[in-house]
From TrEMBL:
Coiled coil: none annotated. It holds the Pfam family SQS_PSY. It comes from Nocardia africana. NCBIfam families: HpnC. It comes from the Bacteria. It is an enzyme of class 2 (transferase). This is Squalene synthase HpnC.
């Protein structure tokens, strides 16, 4: 990456791919800057784990050492980590959250299947939940209660993304749909490459995960009311993006093969308004 220009350009391109608004334009400049920095670092970790040529394990271990060095006061060479450094200092971000994200990507290098949904959630505890904890830290609103609710939301967001990317993940040698669900539906792994309208069993397995995610999002929704100030708005945007994604997957009847399934902006906004309205009532 070109240190002078890459972070901003790369960040904008990546953020457009997400199901949720990474840093709402309505937020003040400082929290927006911190959220962008956190997002860039988490995406860098995923990029190394998913796309880097060569020895990804070695590169992830180097990145882990670089992150540890940042917390020890050393100036990192990577422009994304340079962008992160002021946010780490200003928001007291938990180092273990980044280390868990590294561990999730190391796990991806040796594990490509999950036997049950609970096993998949175990992976999400490393690959997704730390991101929510970093967001809470940005707004200084981490408590045992908010962390527990955030974990439910983040795990749901991660599984919904896996549902959208079934064919892409299969091509990379990874299957995140639980093996027991595939076996119960009589779906062989090879079918995940194409799936689509001609294979209702494939679509049914996807919709099973969507239903689980909808329950998790509902369980995590009280988080919005637990938060105050700008944190409430930001997190409502993430949760709304998850609700809109689940709705899009249901509308597509679980067919994530014929064409990409993306949440509609209007659905995200509608869900966000509903969540904020409920949170205001609860807070009163």
């Amino acid at each position: 990456m070109d240190a002078a220009t890459a972070p901003a350009r790369w960040l904008r391109a990546r953020e457009k791919e997400e199901n949720f608004p990474v840093a709402l334009r309505w937020l003040p400049r400082e929290p927006r800057r911190h959220l962008h920095a956190v997002y860039a670092a988490t995406r860098l970790i995923d990029q190394v784990g998913d796309e880097a040529p060569g020895d990804r394990v070695s590169q992830l271990l180097t990145l882990r050492a670089d992150l540890a060095g940042l917390y020890q006061g050393r100036t990192p060479d990577d422009p994304v980590l340079q962008m992160l450094a002021p946010t780490v200092a200003a928001c007291d971000l938990p180092q273990e959250a980044f280390q868990e994200l590294i561990e999730a990507n190391l796990l991806d290098q040796r594990v490509g299947r999950y036997a049950t949904f609970e096993d998949l959630l175990g992976y999400c505890r490393l690959s997704a939940n730390p991101v929510g904890r970093l967001v809470l830290a940005v707004f200084d609103q981490s408590t045992p209660d908010t962390v527990e609710l955030s974990d439910r939301v983040c795990s749901a967001l991660q599984v919904l993304e896996h549902c959208q990317d079934v064919a892409e993940d299969h091509a990379a040698g990874r299957i995140y749909l639980p093996q027991d669900d595939l076996a119960a539906a009589g779906v062989p792994e090879a079918a995940l490459a194409t799936g689509g309208p001609g294979d209702p069993a494939c679509r049914a397995v996807v919709l099973t995960q969507v239903e689980r995610c909808e329950s998790m999002l509902e369980e995590g929704a009280p988080l919005v009311a637990r938060l105050t100030g700008w944190a409430r708005l930001a997190v409502a945007g993430y949760l709304a993006g998850g609700c809109a994604t689940a709705r899009a997957l249901r509308t597509a009847e679980g067919d994530v093969w014929t064409q990409p399934v993306r949440p509609r902006h209007v659905d995200t906004v509608a869900s966000m308004v509903t969540l904020l309205g409920k949170a205001t009532v609860v807070a009163q």
